[in-house]
Amino acid sequence: MNHRVAALASCVLVAVVLSPVTRCDPYDDGFPLSTFPMFASVRPTQHRMSYALGVTRSGERRLLTPRLIGSGEVLQAYRIVEDAVAIRGEAKKLCRAIAERVRASGDDELVTIRIVTASHDALAVLIDDQLAPERELLRCPVPR
Amino acid sequence: MPGASLMKKLIDRASDWFFAPAPAERLAAVRILVGLFAFGWVTARLVEIYRVAGLSRGFRPYGLVRIVDEPLPPGVVLAIGIATSVLLALFTLGVAYRVIAPIAAVALMMTLCYRNSWGMPFHTENLLVFHVIALSIAPAADVWAIGRRRRSAIAAINYGWALKLMVALTASTYLLAGIAKLRLAGLDWLDGETLRNHIAVDNLRKLLFGDSTAPLATTLLEHPNVLAAFSVMSVALELGAPLSLIGGRVGRLWALGVWGFHVGVVLLMNIWFPYPLFGFAFLPLLRAERGPAWLVGRVREWRHRSPG
Description:
The complex is a heterodimer.
Chain A: H1 3-18, E1 46-56, E2 61-63, H2 66-69, H3 74-86, H4 90-105, E3 110-121, H5 122-128, E4 135-141
Chain B: H1 2-18, H2 24-44, H3 46-53, H4 74-93, H5 97-116, H6 126-136, H7 160-184, H8 193-208, H9 217-221, H10 224-239, H11 248-269, H12 274-277, H13 290-305
Protein backbone atom coordinates (compact mmCIF):
# COMPACT_ATOMS: atom_id res chain seq x y z
CA MET A 1 0.00 0.00 0.00
CA ASN A 2 1.32 3.41 -0.87
CA HIS A 3 2.16 5.64 2.06
CA ARG A 4 -0.46 8.29 1.32
CA VAL A 5 -3.22 5.70 1.15
CA ALA A 6 -1.92 4.07 4.36
CA ALA A 7 -1.88 7.44 6.16
CA LEU A 8 -5.36 8.33 4.93
CA ALA A 9 -6.84 4.92 5.79
CA SER A 10 -5.26 5.10 9.27
CA CYS A 11 -6.62 8.59 9.94
CA VAL A 12 -10.10 7.54 8.79
CA LEU A 13 -10.09 4.40 10.96
CA VAL A 14 -8.96 6.24 14.09
CA ALA A 15 -11.49 9.04 13.45
CA VAL A 16 -14.29 6.48 13.07
CA VAL A 17 -13.30 4.71 16.30
CA LEU A 18 -13.22 8.06 18.14
CA SER A 19 -16.46 9.30 16.54
CA PRO A 20 -18.78 8.08 19.38
CA VAL A 21 -17.37 10.94 21.49
CA THR A 22 -19.50 13.29 19.40
CA ARG A 23 -22.73 11.53 20.39
CA CYS A 24 -24.90 13.85 22.50
CA ASP A 25 -25.93 11.00 24.79
CA PRO A 26 -22.95 9.13 26.26
CA TYR A 27 -25.30 6.21 27.01
CA ASP A 28 -26.00 5.85 23.29
CA ASP A 29 -23.78 2.79 23.12
CA GLY A 30 -23.14 0.50 20.19
CA PHE A 31 -20.88 -2.18 18.81
CA PRO A 32 -18.14 -2.05 17.71
CA LEU A 33 -18.27 1.75 17.91
CA SER A 34 -18.85 2.46 21.57
CA THR A 35 -18.92 5.39 23.96
CA PHE A 36 -17.68 2.93 26.64
CA PRO A 37 -20.22 4.07 29.24
CA MET A 38 -19.75 0.98 31.44
CA PHE A 39 -19.09 1.88 35.06
CA ALA A 40 -18.77 5.56 34.10
CA SER A 41 -21.80 7.08 35.83
CA VAL A 42 -22.38 7.93 39.48
CA ARG A 43 -24.57 5.26 41.03
CA PRO A 44 -26.10 4.50 44.42
CA THR A 45 -25.59 1.20 46.21
CA GLN A 46 -29.35 0.72 46.43
CA HIS A 47 -30.27 -1.39 43.44
CA ARG A 48 -33.72 -2.57 42.40
CA MET A 49 -33.55 -5.70 40.32
CA SER A 50 -35.58 -8.70 39.25
CA TYR A 51 -34.16 -12.20 39.15
CA ALA A 52 -35.17 -15.83 39.04
CA LEU A 53 -34.93 -18.28 41.91
CA GLY A 54 -35.46 -21.98 42.19
CA VAL A 55 -37.36 -23.72 44.98
CA THR A 56 -36.30 -27.24 45.99
CA ARG A 57 -38.55 -30.10 47.06
CA SER A 58 -37.80 -29.24 50.67
CA GLY A 59 -38.76 -25.59 50.09
CA GLU A 60 -35.23 -24.18 50.07
CA ARG A 61 -34.40 -21.12 47.98
CA ARG A 62 -31.73 -21.67 45.35
CA LEU A 63 -30.03 -19.18 43.00
CA LEU A 64 -30.07 -20.00 39.28
CA THR A 65 -27.10 -19.73 36.92
CA PRO A 66 -27.20 -17.32 33.94
CA ARG A 67 -27.22 -20.29 31.56
CA LEU A 68 -30.55 -21.49 32.96
CA ILE A 69 -31.96 -18.02 32.38
CA GLY A 70 -30.85 -17.93 28.76
CA SER A 71 -27.28 -16.62 28.48
CA GLY A 72 -23.82 -17.58 29.59
CA GLU A 73 -23.19 -13.99 30.72
CA VAL A 74 -24.53 -12.55 33.96
CA LEU A 75 -25.27 -9.10 32.52
CA GLN A 76 -27.13 -10.51 29.57
CA ALA A 77 -29.10 -12.86 31.82
CA TYR A 78 -29.89 -9.85 34.01
CA ARG A 79 -31.10 -7.92 30.95
CA ILE A 80 -33.24 -10.88 29.83
CA VAL A 81 -35.07 -10.92 33.19
CA GLU A 82 -35.43 -7.12 33.36
CA ASP A 83 -36.82 -6.98 29.81
CA ALA A 84 -39.23 -9.84 30.47
CA VAL A 85 -40.57 -8.22 33.64
CA ALA A 86 -41.07 -4.90 31.84
CA ILE A 87 -43.42 -6.37 29.21
CA ARG A 88 -46.79 -7.85 30.09
CA GLY A 89 -46.91 -11.60 29.56
CA GLU A 90 -43.20 -11.98 28.90
CA ALA A 91 -42.25 -12.86 32.47
CA LYS A 92 -44.59 -15.85 32.29
CA LYS A 93 -42.94 -17.05 29.08
CA LEU A 94 -39.49 -16.58 30.59
CA CYS A 95 -40.48 -18.47 33.76
CA ARG A 96 -41.67 -21.42 31.65
CA ALA A 97 -38.52 -21.31 29.51
CA ILE A 98 -36.33 -21.39 32.63
CA ALA A 99 -38.40 -24.24 34.08
CA GLU A 100 -37.93 -26.16 30.82
CA ARG A 101 -34.16 -25.60 30.91
CA VAL A 102 -34.04 -26.79 34.53
CA ARG A 103 -35.91 -29.95 33.50
CA ALA A 104 -33.56 -30.47 30.54
CA SER A 105 -30.53 -30.01 32.82
CA GLY A 106 -31.60 -33.09 34.75
CA ASP A 107 -31.86 -31.25 38.07
CA ASP A 108 -34.50 -33.27 39.98
CA GLU A 109 -34.31 -31.16 43.12
CA LEU A 110 -35.90 -27.98 41.81
CA VAL A 111 -39.69 -28.10 41.61
CA THR A 112 -40.64 -24.45 41.17
CA ILE A 113 -39.22 -21.33 39.53
CA ARG A 114 -39.98 -17.92 41.04
CA ILE A 115 -39.42 -14.54 39.42
CA VAL A 116 -38.90 -11.99 42.18
CA THR A 117 -38.03 -8.34 42.49
CA ALA A 118 -36.25 -6.58 45.36
CA SER A 119 -34.46 -3.35 46.18
CA HIS A 120 -31.19 -4.43 47.76
CA ASP A 121 -28.44 -2.35 49.29
CA ALA A 122 -25.45 -3.93 47.55
CA LEU A 123 -23.08 -3.13 50.42
CA ALA A 124 -25.46 -4.59 53.01
CA VAL A 125 -25.79 -7.80 51.00
CA LEU A 126 -22.08 -8.25 50.29
CA ILE A 127 -20.61 -7.12 53.59
CA ASP A 128 -23.36 -7.98 56.11
CA ASP A 129 -25.20 -10.68 54.17
CA GLN A 130 -28.51 -8.78 54.58
CA LEU A 131 -31.01 -9.33 51.80
CA ALA A 132 -33.99 -6.97 51.43
CA PRO A 133 -37.48 -8.53 51.26
CA GLU A 134 -38.20 -10.11 47.87
CA ARG A 135 -41.56 -9.58 46.20
CA GLU A 136 -42.71 -12.53 44.10
CA LEU A 137 -43.96 -11.54 40.66
CA LEU A 138 -44.91 -15.03 39.55
CA ARG A 139 -44.00 -18.67 39.89
CA CYS A 140 -44.24 -21.69 37.65
CA PRO A 141 -43.67 -25.41 38.15
CA VAL A 142 -40.75 -27.33 36.67
CA PRO A 143 -42.36 -29.83 34.24
CA ARG A 144 -41.72 -33.49 35.06
CA MET B 1 6.21 31.61 3.72
CA PRO B 2 7.12 30.72 7.33
CA GLY B 3 3.66 29.21 8.09
CA ALA B 4 3.81 26.87 5.12
CA SER B 5 7.37 25.88 5.97
CA LEU B 6 6.42 25.11 9.56
CA MET B 7 3.46 23.04 8.38
CA LYS B 8 5.69 21.11 5.99
CA LYS B 9 8.16 20.45 8.80
CA LEU B 10 5.37 19.18 11.05
CA ILE B 11 3.99 16.92 8.34
CA ASP B 12 7.46 15.58 7.60
CA ARG B 13 8.08 14.84 11.28
CA ALA B 14 4.69 13.17 11.68
CA SER B 15 5.37 11.15 8.55
CA ASP B 16 8.83 10.10 9.79
CA TRP B 17 7.30 8.99 13.07
CA PHE B 18 4.36 7.14 11.51
CA PHE B 19 6.42 5.42 8.84
CA ALA B 20 9.37 4.58 11.06
CA PRO B 21 10.69 1.19 9.92
CA ALA B 22 9.77 -2.06 11.65
CA PRO B 23 10.63 -5.62 10.66
CA ALA B 24 8.09 -7.40 8.44
CA GLU B 25 8.34 -10.30 10.90
CA ARG B 26 6.98 -8.10 13.71
CA LEU B 27 3.81 -7.26 11.83
CA ALA B 28 3.48 -10.88 10.70
CA ALA B 29 3.86 -12.07 14.30
CA VAL B 30 1.13 -9.67 15.42
CA ARG B 31 -1.09 -10.99 12.61
CA ILE B 32 -0.48 -14.59 13.67
CA LEU B 33 -1.05 -13.98 17.39
CA VAL B 34 -4.07 -11.66 17.01
CA GLY B 35 -5.47 -14.00 14.36
CA LEU B 36 -5.04 -16.99 16.68
CA PHE B 37 -6.82 -15.15 19.46
CA ALA B 38 -9.70 -14.13 17.16
CA PHE B 39 -9.99 -17.67 15.78
CA GLY B 40 -10.01 -19.18 19.28
CA TRP B 41 -12.45 -16.58 20.59
CA VAL B 42 -15.03 -17.10 17.84
CA THR B 43 -14.63 -20.88 17.67
CA ALA B 44 -14.98 -21.29 21.43
CA ARG B 45 -18.17 -19.24 21.37
CA LEU B 46 -19.94 -20.93 18.45
CA VAL B 47 -22.28 -22.91 20.68
CA GLU B 48 -23.10 -19.83 22.76
CA ILE B 49 -23.65 -17.76 19.59
CA TYR B 50 -26.04 -20.42 18.26
CA ARG B 51 -27.92 -20.71 21.54
CA VAL B 52 -28.34 -16.96 22.01
CA ALA B 53 -29.54 -16.58 18.40
CA GLY B 54 -32.45 -18.83 19.32
CA LEU B 55 -33.76 -16.55 22.08
CA SER B 56 -37.30 -15.33 21.56
CA ARG B 57 -36.60 -11.73 22.56
CA GLY B 58 -33.92 -9.19 23.41
CA PHE B 59 -32.71 -8.50 19.85
CA ARG B 60 -31.38 -4.95 19.38
CA PRO B 61 -29.26 -4.84 16.24
CA TYR B 62 -25.91 -3.03 16.43
CA GLY B 63 -23.35 -2.14 13.80
CA LEU B 64 -23.43 -4.24 10.65
CA VAL B 65 -26.42 -6.20 11.94
CA ARG B 66 -28.60 -3.11 11.46
CA ILE B 67 -29.00 -4.24 7.85
CA VAL B 68 -31.44 -6.91 9.10
CA ASP B 69 -34.76 -5.99 10.77
CA GLU B 70 -35.53 -9.41 12.19
CA PRO B 71 -33.27 -11.93 13.91
CA LEU B 72 -31.67 -14.40 11.50
CA PRO B 73 -32.48 -18.12 11.84
CA PRO B 74 -30.03 -19.67 14.37
CA GLY B 75 -28.75 -22.08 11.69
CA VAL B 76 -27.73 -19.14 9.49
CA VAL B 77 -26.01 -17.44 12.44
CA LEU B 78 -24.11 -20.65 13.17
CA ALA B 79 -23.10 -20.97 9.51
CA ILE B 80 -21.78 -17.37 9.54
CA GLY B 81 -19.92 -18.14 12.78
CA ILE B 82 -18.30 -21.28 11.31
CA ALA B 83 -17.37 -19.39 8.12
CA THR B 84 -15.83 -16.67 10.30
CA SER B 85 -13.73 -19.26 12.13
CA VAL B 86 -12.48 -20.72 8.85
CA LEU B 87 -11.68 -17.26 7.46
CA LEU B 88 -9.82 -16.33 10.64
CA ALA B 89 -7.77 -19.53 10.40
CA LEU B 90 -6.78 -18.57 6.83
CA PHE B 91 -6.11 -14.99 8.02
CA THR B 92 -3.76 -16.35 10.68
CA LEU B 93 -1.94 -18.54 8.19
CA GLY B 94 -1.70 -15.65 5.74
CA VAL B 95 -3.34 -17.59 2.89
CA ALA B 96 -4.33 -15.33 -0.07
CA TYR B 97 -4.08 -12.54 2.46
CA ARG B 98 -5.07 -9.55 0.33
CA VAL B 99 -8.40 -11.17 -0.47
CA ILE B 100 -9.05 -13.24 2.64
CA ALA B 101 -8.03 -10.71 5.31
CA PRO B 102 -10.66 -8.01 4.55
CA ILE B 103 -13.36 -10.69 4.23
CA ALA B 104 -12.28 -12.21 7.56
CA ALA B 105 -12.43 -8.76 9.19
CA VAL B 106 -15.97 -8.14 7.92
CA ALA B 107 -17.05 -11.65 8.97
CA LEU B 108 -15.61 -11.15 12.45
CA MET B 109 -17.41 -7.83 12.76
CA MET B 110 -20.68 -9.40 11.58
CA THR B 111 -20.43 -12.35 13.98
CA LEU B 112 -19.53 -10.24 17.01
CA CYS B 113 -22.06 -7.49 16.15
CA TYR B 114 -24.72 -10.19 16.00
CA ARG B 115 -23.69 -11.67 19.34
CA ASN B 116 -23.67 -8.21 20.95
CA SER B 117 -27.11 -7.45 19.51
CA TRP B 118 -28.66 -9.79 22.06
CA GLY B 119 -29.15 -8.48 25.57
CA MET B 120 -26.64 -5.68 25.73
CA PRO B 121 -23.37 -4.74 24.05
CA PHE B 122 -20.18 -5.80 25.80
CA HIS B 123 -16.89 -3.96 25.63
CA THR B 124 -14.54 -6.91 25.59
CA GLU B 125 -14.43 -7.40 21.82
CA ASN B 126 -14.34 -3.89 20.31
CA LEU B 127 -10.55 -3.60 20.22
CA LEU B 128 -10.16 -7.09 18.75
CA VAL B 129 -12.41 -6.07 15.86
CA PHE B 130 -10.47 -2.83 15.29
CA HIS B 131 -7.12 -4.62 15.36
CA VAL B 132 -8.25 -7.26 12.86
CA ILE B 133 -9.53 -4.49 10.56
CA ALA B 134 -6.19 -2.66 10.83
CA LEU B 135 -4.26 -5.87 10.07
CA SER B 136 -6.55 -6.66 7.16
CA ILE B 137 -5.55 -3.48 5.31
CA ALA B 138 -1.84 -3.88 6.12
CA PRO B 139 0.86 -5.98 4.40
CA ALA B 140 0.88 -8.32 7.40
CA ALA B 141 1.50 -11.52 5.45
CA ASP B 142 4.63 -10.61 3.48
CA VAL B 143 6.56 -13.12 5.60
CA TRP B 144 5.57 -16.11 7.73
CA ALA B 145 2.60 -16.84 5.51
CA ILE B 146 1.56 -19.98 3.70
CA GLY B 147 2.04 -19.73 -0.04
CA ARG B 148 4.51 -16.82 0.23
CA ARG B 149 7.99 -17.21 -1.16
CA ARG B 150 10.77 -15.69 0.89
CA ARG B 151 11.70 -12.31 -0.47
CA SER B 152 15.32 -11.34 -0.78
CA ALA B 153 14.79 -7.69 0.17
CA ILE B 154 11.97 -6.35 2.27
CA ALA B 155 11.52 -2.62 2.88
CA ALA B 156 11.04 -2.26 6.64
CA ILE B 157 9.51 1.16 6.01
CA ASN B 158 6.29 -0.56 4.88
CA TYR B 159 5.47 -2.30 8.14
CA GLY B 160 5.81 0.09 11.09
CA TRP B 161 2.77 2.20 10.25
CA ALA B 162 0.31 -0.67 10.73
CA LEU B 163 1.68 -1.28 14.24
CA LYS B 164 1.36 2.46 15.00
CA LEU B 165 -2.20 2.36 13.74
CA MET B 166 -2.99 -0.55 16.07
CA VAL B 167 -1.48 1.33 19.03
CA ALA B 168 -3.56 4.40 18.09
CA LEU B 169 -6.71 2.26 18.01
CA THR B 170 -5.88 0.77 21.41
CA ALA B 171 -5.26 4.25 22.83
CA SER B 172 -8.52 5.54 21.31
CA THR B 173 -10.67 2.93 23.06
CA TYR B 174 -9.12 3.63 26.48
CA LEU B 175 -9.32 7.38 25.90
CA LEU B 176 -13.03 7.07 25.10
CA ALA B 177 -13.57 5.15 28.36
CA GLY B 178 -11.82 7.93 30.30
CA ILE B 179 -13.82 10.65 28.55
CA ALA B 180 -17.06 8.78 29.30
CA LYS B 181 -16.28 8.84 33.02
CA LEU B 182 -15.67 12.59 32.96
CA ARG B 183 -18.80 13.23 30.87
CA LEU B 184 -21.08 11.08 33.02
CA ALA B 185 -19.70 11.53 36.52
CA GLY B 186 -17.19 14.39 36.29
CA LEU B 187 -14.54 14.57 38.98
CA ASP B 188 -16.88 12.70 41.36
CA TRP B 189 -15.61 9.54 39.68
CA LEU B 190 -12.25 10.08 41.37
CA ASP B 191 -13.41 9.98 45.00
CA GLY B 192 -13.56 6.19 45.16
CA GLU B 193 -17.23 6.03 46.10
CA THR B 194 -18.44 5.70 42.53
CA LEU B 195 -16.01 2.86 41.88
CA ARG B 196 -16.97 1.22 45.18
CA ASN B 197 -20.67 1.39 44.28
CA HIS B 198 -20.07 -0.06 40.83
CA ILE B 199 -18.07 -2.91 42.34
CA ALA B 200 -20.81 -3.53 44.90
CA VAL B 201 -23.72 -3.53 42.44
CA ASP B 202 -21.84 -5.62 39.89
CA ASN B 203 -21.00 -8.24 42.50
CA LEU B 204 -24.57 -8.15 43.80
CA ARG B 205 -25.82 -9.06 40.32
CA LYS B 206 -23.31 -11.88 40.11
CA LEU B 207 -24.34 -13.18 43.49
CA LEU B 208 -28.06 -13.19 42.67
CA PHE B 209 -27.47 -14.75 39.27
CA GLY B 210 -25.58 -17.67 40.73
CA ASP B 211 -22.15 -16.59 39.49
CA SER B 212 -18.89 -16.20 41.45
CA THR B 213 -18.25 -12.86 43.09
CA ALA B 214 -14.78 -11.32 42.74
CA PRO B 215 -12.14 -12.54 45.22
CA LEU B 216 -11.16 -9.12 46.64
CA ALA B 217 -14.52 -7.34 46.30
CA THR B 218 -15.86 -7.81 49.80
CA THR B 219 -12.50 -7.00 51.41
CA LEU B 220 -11.94 -3.76 49.53
CA LEU B 221 -15.56 -2.57 49.69
CA GLU B 222 -14.83 -1.76 53.32
CA HIS B 223 -11.84 0.42 52.35
CA PRO B 224 -13.05 3.24 50.10
CA ASN B 225 -9.70 5.10 50.45
CA VAL B 226 -7.89 2.32 48.59
CA LEU B 227 -10.57 2.46 45.93
CA ALA B 228 -10.04 6.23 45.59
CA ALA B 229 -6.42 5.53 44.60
CA PHE B 230 -7.63 2.92 42.08
CA SER B 231 -10.11 5.44 40.65
CA VAL B 232 -7.42 8.07 40.07
CA MET B 233 -5.05 5.51 38.54
CA SER B 234 -7.76 4.15 36.23
CA VAL B 235 -8.71 7.57 34.86
CA ALA B 236 -5.04 8.60 34.56
CA LEU B 237 -4.28 5.47 32.51
CA GLU B 238 -7.31 5.98 30.30
CA LEU B 239 -6.78 9.67 29.64
CA GLY B 240 -3.03 9.09 29.35
CA ALA B 241 -3.53 6.42 26.68
CA PRO B 242 -2.21 8.65 23.84
CA LEU B 243 1.19 8.53 25.59
CA SER B 244 1.45 4.94 24.36
CA LEU B 245 2.01 6.40 20.87
CA ILE B 246 5.46 7.53 22.02
CA GLY B 247 6.30 3.83 21.97
CA GLY B 248 9.44 2.35 23.47
CA ARG B 249 9.63 2.27 27.25
CA VAL B 250 6.83 4.79 27.73
CA GLY B 251 4.50 2.71 25.61
CA ARG B 252 5.43 -0.51 27.37
CA LEU B 253 5.06 1.12 30.78
CA TRP B 254 1.59 2.31 29.86
CA ALA B 255 0.73 -1.19 28.62
CA LEU B 256 1.93 -2.65 31.91
CA GLY B 257 -0.24 -0.16 33.82
CA VAL B 258 -3.32 -1.02 31.77
CA TRP B 259 -2.63 -4.73 32.16
CA GLY B 260 -2.48 -4.20 35.94
CA PHE B 261 -5.76 -2.29 35.72
CA HIS B 262 -7.40 -5.29 34.02
CA VAL B 263 -6.01 -7.65 36.66
CA GLY B 264 -7.59 -5.32 39.25
CA VAL B 265 -10.92 -5.52 37.40
CA VAL B 266 -10.77 -9.33 37.66
CA LEU B 267 -9.96 -9.23 41.36
CA LEU B 268 -12.62 -6.66 42.19
CA MET B 269 -15.40 -7.42 39.72
CA ASN B 270 -14.60 -10.81 38.22
CA ILE B 271 -14.93 -9.23 34.79
CA TRP B 272 -12.48 -10.65 32.28
CA PHE B 273 -11.20 -8.73 29.29
CA PRO B 274 -9.16 -11.60 27.79
CA TYR B 275 -7.74 -9.61 24.87
CA PRO B 276 -5.76 -7.15 27.03
CA LEU B 277 -5.51 -9.48 30.02
CA PHE B 278 -3.52 -12.05 28.06
CA GLY B 279 -1.43 -9.31 26.45
CA PHE B 280 -2.75 -9.52 22.87
CA ALA B 281 -3.96 -5.90 22.90
CA PHE B 282 -0.43 -4.68 23.60
CA LEU B 283 1.45 -6.79 21.02
CA PRO B 284 1.96 -3.82 18.65
CA LEU B 285 3.99 -2.16 21.44
CA LEU B 286 6.25 -5.17 21.92
CA ARG B 287 8.89 -6.99 19.89
CA ALA B 288 6.26 -9.53 19.03
CA GLU B 289 8.41 -11.33 16.45
CA ARG B 290 10.73 -12.79 19.11
CA GLY B 291 8.47 -15.64 20.23
CA PRO B 292 7.41 -16.82 16.76
CA ALA B 293 10.99 -16.32 15.44
CA TRP B 294 12.32 -18.63 18.13
CA LEU B 295 9.63 -21.16 17.25
CA VAL B 296 10.32 -20.91 13.49
CA GLY B 297 14.06 -21.36 14.22
CA ARG B 298 13.41 -24.51 16.26
CA VAL B 299 11.14 -25.95 13.55
CA ARG B 300 13.77 -25.28 10.84
CA GLU B 301 16.45 -26.83 13.02
CA TRP B 302 14.29 -29.89 13.58
CA ARG B 303 13.62 -30.17 9.81
CA HIS B 304 17.34 -30.03 9.02
CA ARG B 305 18.11 -32.66 11.60
CA SER B 306 15.37 -35.08 10.68
CA PRO B 307 16.46 -37.72 8.15
CA GLY B 308 15.33 -37.43 4.54
